Amino acid sequence: MDRFVLWFMHPDCNSFNGAIMETLKKALESLGKEVKVRDIHEIGLSPILTRKEYEDSLKGVYPEEIQKEHRYIDWADVIVLVFPLWWGNFPAAGKGFLDRVLSYGFAYELKEETPIPKLQGKKVGAVYTTGAPEEAFAKSKNHIEKTWEAQIFQFCGFQTIPFLHFGDVVQATDETRKQMLQDVKDYAKQNVSK
């Protein structure tokens, strides 16, 4: 596993999520990994899956901007999402990105109603933040992560690696944030790069 794509879903690269993404990128590169960052807001991909695009995807036809993202997925051994959890899910641009890029015919197919995953051999993980403290988020955390695993990633054939969550980031002290960034480095070494 030497090729990584980071899907950065926060609208501000100067945010703490941006610091997480940069820390993860540098940690992976220091381990000799190739890393490409796809800043979902920077690339300007519309989050809207139109009816025409949906119908075309059923025929294996995709817009060039989606084919480009498919090539990044094809290139990658591991994809890691970096995002804030807003209203219980990915930011809207990130959710729309997944809707469009994990396209029918590319990421999965259906035989009658049985899903056929098409991205086997690839891994996916996530580093995400919440404003809620860990203890307040604990009850829903497992449910949310299991939903991502089963309904998105495994559905498409990805093997999931552990997710890393940081809570209470809005109120975190500088010292706490430094420790969080150290945890990102450790995550890169222990989970992501194996």
UniProtKB/TrEMBL annotation:
It comes from the Bacteria. Keywords: Oxidoreductase. One of its GO terms (cellular component) is cytosol. Residues 9-186 form the Flavodoxin-like fold domain. One of its GO terms (molecular function) is NAD(P)H dehydrogenase (quinone) activity. SUPFAM superfamilies: Flavoproteins. Belongs to the NAD(P)H dehydrogenase (quinone) family. This is Flavodoxin family protein.
